[in-house]
Amino acid sequence: MKYNIISSIILCSTIMTPALVVAKQNTPSIKLVEAGRYQSNIFDQSAAEIVTFDKNTQQTFVVNAQSGQIDVINSKNIDNPTLTKHLNIKADIKQHLGADAGAANSVDVHNGLLAVAIEAKNKTDIGWVAFYNTHDLSFISANALGSLPDMVTFTPNGKQVVVALEGEPSNNNYAVDPEGEVAIIDIDWNNKILTTDSKILNFKAFNKDGSRHSSVPQGLLLNGYHASISKDVEPEYIAVNEDSTKAYVALQENNAIAIIDLTTKRIDQIIALGLKDHLLDGNELDGNDKDKKALLSKQPLLGMYQPDSIATTRINGVDYLITANEGDDRSDWISGLSQAECEQGNFYYHLEDQQCADDIKLKDAFSSKIYDPNLSTAQLNLAHFAKGGSLSGTVNRIKFSHSMTAKYGDLDGDKKIDRLLTFGGRSFSIWDMNTKTMVFDSGSDFERITAEKYGKNFNQSHSKLKAEDRSAKKGPEPEALTVATINNKTYAFIGLERMGGIMVYDISQPKDAKFIQYLNTRNMSVDPKANKKHKNAQGVATYQIDAGDLGPEGFKFVAAKASPTGSPILIVGNEVSGTTRFYRIETE
How far is residue 373's CA from residue 172's CA, in Å, rounded to a whole number? Predict the structure, then answer.
């Protein structure tokens, strides 16, 4: 097949031999074992989203997002964790700064200092990172930063806090679209007095008229509505390397990673992650949510990795970045546009829903009742996928990105779409940050392993019981992620947001990662959506039935020397079930 220049560049970084795609089964060297859990009794309200652990006080801090609070859990006995206190971040911001805060989004701790990222009530306004003393849980101070602080992390040496300022646009119409930014806060903390100094980095230099525009990688995916690059990028997650010199920033919607030098406080470069070829051996997927079968097959699709959580580890002197390839789209922010505005932005207007959207099912693209663009330039030529076309056997229920397919789906330049660009990689990947190349991807492992366990009941959603509900969308949606070194081996733990459960891999040899365990505490005989019918006096859905842990969102590994058990543990925040689960990590 003849590729045009752009598609060739995008694909070359992800074409791998099958040996790099399929993880090998390994004799287990560690094993996750359930311990206790704390249940907030709040259902599907992000009540247990991101978690962190303070070794000094043996407390776990859990983001109770929508409430604007942090739940403080006594974790000295992981078989019976109990609530110590609710930290009301929203109230403290009001009391000390006189400002109105919204949701708490992230939390991290180092040496008795707790950092909480919290957005403004109007999310496009300036948000904060608030600091607390973990010993007495007292408020210390708050730094005003940029729009929508979404993730906060301490550097390993504790001298800096790095913050992802996502800068999402206003709902429905992009009327306000803040710039995506990264904040670096220098920390001086002696367990009593805190001094901070903040610097905010933006991406303006990469705009068309910027001094660094020539360094923008061709594979950077840009589809923000009439957005400059600095507004298009939305920093999602941050990982810092072992010696606290580099921060890696996930630009999820853009399918890219920004690398930041923490010494010079400068953006070094942006790396485009490329696309995942689902026609390759080992990259099969199930894209049909109606056939009541767990049937993985090769498809003419290019998956945008679009990682959410990322982590870094150093193996034999090399920094590796591990990515949970969840996927994301921009349909939430473009639904308020008219058909003319929608099509000018390279999206499409869903005629039945009367809404602008980007994600579209293949079968709907052949329905004039749903898809009938006014602008000829907004019309995808899907002749290859139509009846009688060379790709007519493509699963017709798969959802893909209209805007990205229009830009990159025509591989040979004949104005006909050859591949559909889908959201997420349904996998986790390992990237060598010296060479800036992928050395491993788990391919179809997650769907294959869950299909072997659950059959046609795989690819569930997290808030209801419906077989294959996510097959046509983003599959199991790997989101939560952490890495750990145990007995001189390195492991990756990956949480499947929709299907639920944790995948464990030995990544000690990054090019030859090995599957170790899949553990899911979800009760597949219980439909959790029944909880939505039961609400408390504040209108919040509460638990009436227990379907297990649903929607793993945040992981925290605690090494043996810091653990309350004297052995390594894993703490998991499950945003849908509102539960914080503790696991022992048994070693052999």
Answer: 20
> What is the distance between the alpha carbons of residues 34 and 15, in angstroms, rounded to a whole number?
38
pTM of the model as a whole? 0.95
pLDDT at 423 over 50: yes
pLDDT of residue 157: 98
Sole residue written with tokens 């598609």: 7
Name the residue among 356, 323, 331, 408 with its Cα closest to residue 169. 331
Nearest one of 555, 545, 135 to 324, comparing CA atoms: 555
pLDDT at site 25? 57
Beta bridge partners of 164: 151, 182
pLDDT(232) > 90: yes
Strands 502-506 and 194-202: unpaired
Report the pLDDT value the prediction gives residue 565, as an integer from 0 to 100: 97
Whole-angstrom CA distances from 368 to 5, 174, 379 are 33, 27, 12
Q: How far is CA 75 from CA 35, 55, 191, 535, 558, in A?
A: 11, 10, 21, 29, 12
| 275-277/266-272 β-pairing | unpaired
| Selection from 143, 141, 91 nearest residue 113 by Cα | 141
Widest CA span of the chain, in angstroms?
Answer: 73
Q: Which residues contact 380 (CB under 8 A, 6 or more apart)?
A: 365, 402, 405, 406, 409, 417
Within 10 angstroms of residue 423's Cβ, the number of other Cβ atoms is: 26
Contact 312, 321 (CB under 8 A): yes
